Recover the amino acids of this structure.
């Protein structure tokens, strides 16, 4: 008996619990409501700027604090590490839905045509016979005018006028989520086992929750690590000082972490500026990224500054007369060619795995995935058919719908993969959703009016977010975090529950804010500029005389970018010391690299020095320090928001943005 008692207690299997799913769904809804309120009413922060948004990091850190208190005061009620990971993952799936990530634009754009139409903008004359009214709220004064001017006293919100619009936007959005989830299931083993992606954004929550399952330990190991607290106070100390300055206005502000516009370094006339922006979450979360990718991000950004400046100074352009591409557009075309190469390459290197997937799907061979490969393929095909049909219903021709959908999938798929590889959550789709590339390849002269309006709707920020992509970047991490759970089937279905909770929580709250605060008074550009510009661009594209045609020169630039990426990948695979990855070329012009190149340089330099001095041992010891930078920043933003809510509800302090 004594021998039996001396044996260590076997580890309990990881298990998703019902309470963690309920808490995750509630958090998904509430974080969207909070982010909408903070951005549109308080104006104290814009919490959705990256693929891993501050809107979801804030509640996750709050749950860590709550769980530490429960562990101390009521251990039996404390959440286990897997339960916290469920909350983290469900929150991230909808972490880009709220505010400027998506639903603010959705609420403003879908409701704009009827309210802002006038003889001067010609919307009614040009667009009203073409617009897909079936996916917009009912165009009546009772529904729309009161949404922008506020409800009369005693009136209730006319929810019925929004039901059809909510239905159709949710239907196409959940179809895209299903398509992304099925693709993630198909590629997950390839990325984890064959390519061994580092998944820094999954390692981060694992490190913070590891130890909550130990009955003999109250505080997880990372919170007892001195390096962690050094990183934490390097950042939080600055926030604490600045928060004191809210009350003692004579205290000088420390602006080391302020927005990029305060860190501008002009280069020369016609050259883009360089920004000395330091963002602790970028430093902390990219620390586990490979050195060649980090080096490529900042090196290609410097090269892009030189290329753009030289082309602008010399007046270099490409294309047919009257539709030439100048410096900025040339770089975007070059980048998009490299971006598409990365998408094709991701499929090519997985060809052996994909053959296994197809064989398993055809034969019904069992596998140990969340769902069978057969169901994953069928789910992807069904979701794709629905989105394809939605595109046609909005007004695209079948050819354009297929072309656009391929570009859309390539964009989301590539961002999802390389977010998992790098931990850099400011990777945004090159060329957006693909509409600009469609117009370059086909020319606007060939587009019908219905095509033009459909492209305007699909490429607006009302359709499945803007540059911040709902769900897709989170899905590979979701499978990484929870794919080994004993309740594997639940891992698939809680994605849909999380997305539904966040989508309806945010959209319904946006409708509520419009009727109760008057939509024309709401902050953020979804109600104060972007909504009107969306329809003005449609009118200009239809009635304007400057139509474009297929342009071989622009296509040649695109092919040149693709060829460069192919050469870089070849050198990377054949030359062991080659330092450049084509990922840097693909994102040379995008806002993530443009704004945070200096932060990535600091991470690259720090990691290089650490590895040179202490090797892999010191590198691992420093991981808590870099994660502490992230938590210090999140806690600083959270404390500042609480202080604003309590003491400055009408005049908040902006502490997080670009």
């Amino acid at each position: 008996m004594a021998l039996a008692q001396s044996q260590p207690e076997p580890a309990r299997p990881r298990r998703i619990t019902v309470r963690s799913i309920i808490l995750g769904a509630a958090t998904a809804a509430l974080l969207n409501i909070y982010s909408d309120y903070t951005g549109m009413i308080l104006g104290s922060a814009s919490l959705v700027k990256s693929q891993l948004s501050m809107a979801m990091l804030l509640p996750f850190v709050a749950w860590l604090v709550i769980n530490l208190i429960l562990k101390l005061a009521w251990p039996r009620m404390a959440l286990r590490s897997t339960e916290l990971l469920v909350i983290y993952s469900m929150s991230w799936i909808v972490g880009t839905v709220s505010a400027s990530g998506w639903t603010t634009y959705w609420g403003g754009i879908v409701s704009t045509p009827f309210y802002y139409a006038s003889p001067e903008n010609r919307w009614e004359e040009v667009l009203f016979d073409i617009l897909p009214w079936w996916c917009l709220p009912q165009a009546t004064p009772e529904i729309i005018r009161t949404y922008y001017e506020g409800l009369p006293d005693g009136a209730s919100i006319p929810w019925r006028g929004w039901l059809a619009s909510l239905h159709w936007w949710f239907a196409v959005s959940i179809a895209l989520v299903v398509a992304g989830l099925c693709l993630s299931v198909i590629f997950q083993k390839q990325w984890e086992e064959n390519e061994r992606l580092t998944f820094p954004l999954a390692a981060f929550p694992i490190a913070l929750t590891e130890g909550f399952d130990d009955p003999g330990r109250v505080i997880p190991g990372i919170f007892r690590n001195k390096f962690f607290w050094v990183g934490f106070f390097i950042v939080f100390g600055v926030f604490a000082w600045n928060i004191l300055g809210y009350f003692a206005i004579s205290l000088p502000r420390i602006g080391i972490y302020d927005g990029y516009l305060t860190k501008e370094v002009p280069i020369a006339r016609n050259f883009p500026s360089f920004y000395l922006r330091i963002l602790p979450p970028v430093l902390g979360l990219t620390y586990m990224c490979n050195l060649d990718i980090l080096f490529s991000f900042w090196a290609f950004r410097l090269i892009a500054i030189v290329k753009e400046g030289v082309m602008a100074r010399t007046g270099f352009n490409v294309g047919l007369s009257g539709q030439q591409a100048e410096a900025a557009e040339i770089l975007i075309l070059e980048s998009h060619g490299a971006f598409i190469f990365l998408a094709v390459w991701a499929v090519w290197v997985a060809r052996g795995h994909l053959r296994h997937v197809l064989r398993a799907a055809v034969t019904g061979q069992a596998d140990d995935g969340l769902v069978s490969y057969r169901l994953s393929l069928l789910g992807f095909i069904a979701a794709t058919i629905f989105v394809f049909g939605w595109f046609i219903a909005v007004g695209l021709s079948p050819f354009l719908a297929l072309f656009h959908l391929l570009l859309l999938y390539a964009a989301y798929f590539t961002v999802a993969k390389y977010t998992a590889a790098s931990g850099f959550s400011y990777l945004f789709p090159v060329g957006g959703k693909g509409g600009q590339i469609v117009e370059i390849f086909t020319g606007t002269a060939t587009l019908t009016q219905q095509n033009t309006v459909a492209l305007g709707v699909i490429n607006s920020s009302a359709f499945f977010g803007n540059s911040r992509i709902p769900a897709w970047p989170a899905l590979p991490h979701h499978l990484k975090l929870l794919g080994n759970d004993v309740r594997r089937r639940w891992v698939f279905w809680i994605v849909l529950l999380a997305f539904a909770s966040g989508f309806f929580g945010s959209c319904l709250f946006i409708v509520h804010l419009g009727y109760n605060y008057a939509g024309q008074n709401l902050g953020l550009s979804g109600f104060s500029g972007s909504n009107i510009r969306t329809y003005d661009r449609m009118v200009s594209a239809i009635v304007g005389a400057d139509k474009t045609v297929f342009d071989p020169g622009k296509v040649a630039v695109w092919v040149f970018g693709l060829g460069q990426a192919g050469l870089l990948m070849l050198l990377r695979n054949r030359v062991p010391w080659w330092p450049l990855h084509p990922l840097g070329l693909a994102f040379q012009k995008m806002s993530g690299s443009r704004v945070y190149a200096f932060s990535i340089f600091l991470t690259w330099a720090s990691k290089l020095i650490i590895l040179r001095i202490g090797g892999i041992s010191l590198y691992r010891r420093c991981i808590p320090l870099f994660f502490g930078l992230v938590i210090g920043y999140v806690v600083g933003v959270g404390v500042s928001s609480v202080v604003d809510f309590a003491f400055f509800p009408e005049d908040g302090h902006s502490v997080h943005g670009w």
In short: The longest helix spans residues 591-647. Residues 1-11 have pLDDT under 50 and may be disordered. Residues 388 and 401 are 6 Å apart (CA to CA).
